[in-house]
Automatic annotation (TrEMBL):
<keyword id="KW-0472">Membrane</keyword>
<feature type="transmembrane region" description="Helical">
    <location>
        <begin position="38"/>
        <end position="61"/>
    </location>
</feature>
<protein>
    <submittedName>
        <fullName>Membrane protein</fullName>
    </submittedName>
</protein>
<keyword id="KW-1133">Transmembrane helix</keyword>
<feature type="transmembrane region" description="Helical">
    <location>
        <begin position="68"/>
        <end position="91"/>
    </location>
</feature>
<dbReference type="InterPro" id="IPR006696">
    <property type="entry name" value="DUF423"/>
</dbReference>
<keyword id="KW-0812">Transmembrane</keyword>
<comment type="similarity">
    <text>Belongs to the UPF0382 family.</text>
</comment>
<feature type="transmembrane region" description="Helical">
    <location>
        <begin position="97"/>
        <end position="121"/>
    </location>
</feature>
<feature type="transmembrane region" description="Helical">
    <location>
        <begin position="7"/>
        <end position="26"/>
    </location>
</feature>
<dbReference type="Pfam" id="PF04241">
    <property type="entry name" value="DUF423"/>
</dbReference>
<dbReference type="GO" id="GO:0005886">
    <property type="term" value="C:plasma membrane"/>
</dbReference>
């Protein structure tokens, strides 16, 4: 993925996170239990945090000049979809089995951050 595409994906994810946060705070407050609302908020927080991570990757691409950063952005996006997506679905549906998908998204996040670290390490040589 190139920098422009990653920035667009990051911005769309921030848009969704802000909207989902507002929806949770105002639209779901009366509908969801406190536990499900906390799950919703976790999804929002991780989506926003990793959308910012996507911006960081895009900004570092010219400096680090590593193909690994494109893969890191893909891993981070997959992490957002699996982690936050499964938590959004769990909070709305109450279907607990969806929580089994969440750790896969966490692995995507870990992989993305590890690839970013490795790309930075390699650029210093």
């Amino acid at each position: 993925m190139n920098e422009r595409t990653i920035i667009i994906i990051a911005a769309v994810n921030m848009f969704i996170a802000v909207g989902a946060g507002a929806f949770g705070a105002h639209g779901l407050k009366q509908v969801l239990s406190a536990e499900m609302l906390a799950i919703w908020q976790t999804a929002v927080s991780y989506q926003a945090m990793h959308a910012l991570g996507l911006f960081v990757i895009a900004l570092l691409m010219p400096r680090l000049n590593s193909a690994l950063l494109g893969w890191a952005s893909i891993a981070m996006l997959v992490g957002i979809v699996l982690f936050s997506g499964s938590l959004y679905a769990l909070a709305l549906s109450g279907t607990r089995i969806l929580g089994a998908i969440t750790p896969l998204g966490g692995l995507g996040f870990l992989l993305a951050w590890a690839m970013l670290a490795w790309a930075a390490y390699q650029s210093a040589r």
